[in-house]
Structures are given as structure tokens and as C-alpha cells.
């Protein structure tokens, strides 16, 4: 009985050794490597976040030369307009762009019910050099009245900056060292008509204040004196 049990144990050990030996040789022969793939189906013009990627092992021969396998070259990038990146697919250089290099860079940064509102510095009176993408600002409006004192008041607070470009339409930053000419703001779509009306009859000014960094984004100052003149 002891001999049978001992033989059985030896047989099990041999089988285990063979299994791991074959597995090791197979892995070594196939040459598996760890790669970064999509953790879900990713559509056009989506910004890649940490949760959108994962790692798996695949044969090295399956990885094409233009595949991207560094997280810092994937996270924060935006997918191109063409096609879909399926779940478990590799990322390729032709599929991703830097946000500041695409014409519609501001659009993916908008939240629900927000639209892009552009302000240009045509008159030269608007200093955009103090603003950066991602910060929030307050929008003040001025309406000039004939023979009366101009009306100046806060319109919107906590408005997010999503793009700043030079006169050539190039995003300020690494791609352009020119002077800021236009700024794009994320505005609640319900407030666009108010800003458009004031821009036609008066002027808009941007300020970074303590109110800019508190509360709800693109919040309308319902007590603004200017609103009485555009109803």
C-alpha cells in the first residue's frame, strides 16, 4: 500500500514538473511580452484616462512597430476622428493626437449642456496672457448708455477656460510662443444668448477672482444689473 501511495505521489510530481516545464518552454519559445491595450471600446474624440487602459501578455510577433506601449504616451491623449479602438486592442500612433494639436480641441473638454464660447482680442484691450487652460474665470459685462454712466457688473462666475490660441489658430503652449489672441470658454448653453447679446451692445471682460474657483461652473449672476437691459 505504501509503495502504491509513494508511486502515486511520484507520478503526480512528475506530471506537475512536466506541466510547468512545458509551460516555461512554450512561453520562452513564443516570447510573450506585456503590452498596453484598451480596457473598453473607445470611440472617436475621447480623452484617454487611466481606467481606459490595462496590460496583457501577447506574443511579441503580434506587436507592430507603430504600437504605443508607454502609459505616458497614451493617457491624456485624444482619439482621432477615424474609427473605434476596440476593447483589448493595442494603441497605435495613428489613432491618438495631442489635444492642443487638433482643430476642435476644446470640444472634448466640454461637459454636458456646455458649449464653446470664443472671445477674440481684436481691439487689443483684452489681456489673455494671464490665463491658462483649465482655470476658471469670471465674466463681467459693460453696456454703454447714451449720455449716462456705463453699466458694469458680474455676469457669470466659475467659467472654465478650455482653449487659448494665437492669431494663427495654434494652441498657446509647446506649439506656439506667440501672444494669445483668442480664448474659448465652457459656457452653459442656457447663457449663450445673454453673452452674445452683450457682446453686440457692449463689451465682455474676464477676471480671475476668488469667486472664480468656487461653486457651480458657469453660474449666472441672476442679480446682475445688466440683465435688466437685455430682456
UniProtKB/TrEMBL annotation:
Domain of life, source organism: Bacteria
Protein name per the record: Flp pilus assembly protein CpaB
Cited CDD domains: SAF_CpaB_FlgA_like
Lineage: Bacteria, Bacillati, Bacillota, Erysipelotrichia, Erysipelotrichales
UniProt organism field: Anaerorhabdus furcosa
Amino acid at each position: 500500500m505504501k509503495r502504491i501511495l509513494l508511486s502515486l505521489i511520484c507520478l503526480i510530481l512528475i506530471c506537475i514538473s512536466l506541466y510547468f516545464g512545458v509551460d516555461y518552454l512554450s512561453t520562452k519559445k513564443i516570447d510573450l511580452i506585456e503590452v498596453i491595450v484598451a480596457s473598453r471600446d473607445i470611440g472617436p474624440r475621447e480623452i484617454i484616462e487611466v481606467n481606459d487602459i490595462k496590460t496583457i501578455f501577447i506574443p511579441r510577433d503580434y506587436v507592430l512597430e507603430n504600437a504605443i506601449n508607454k502609459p505616458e504616451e497614451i493617457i491624456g491623449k485624444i482619439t482621432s476622428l477615424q474609427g473605434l479602438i476596440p476593447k483589448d486592442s493595442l494603441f497605435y500612433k495613428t489613432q491618438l493626437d495631442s489635444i492642443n494639436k487638433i482643430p476642435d480641441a476644446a470640444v472634448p473638454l466640454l461637459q454636458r449642456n456646455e458649449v464653446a464660447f470664443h472671445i477674440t482680442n481684436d481691439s487689443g484691450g483684452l489681456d489673455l496672457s494671464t490665463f491658462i487652460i483649465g482655470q476658471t474665470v469670471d465674466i463681467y459685462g459693460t453696456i454703454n448708455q447714451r449720455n449716462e454712466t456705463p453699466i458694469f457688473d458680474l455676469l457669470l462666475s466659475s467659467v472654465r477656460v478650455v482653449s487659448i490660441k494665437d492669431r494663427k489658430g495654434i494652441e498657446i503652449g509647446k506649439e506656439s510662443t506667440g501672444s494669445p489672441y483668442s480664448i474659448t470658454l465652457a459656457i452653459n448653453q442656457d447663457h449663450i444668448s445673454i453673452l452674445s447679446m452683450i457682446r453686440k451692445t457692449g463689451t465682455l471682460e474676464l477676471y480671475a477672482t476668488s469667486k472664480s474657483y468656487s461653486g457651480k461652473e458657469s453660474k449666472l449672476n441672476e442679480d446682475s444689473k445688466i440683465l435688466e437691459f437685455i430682456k
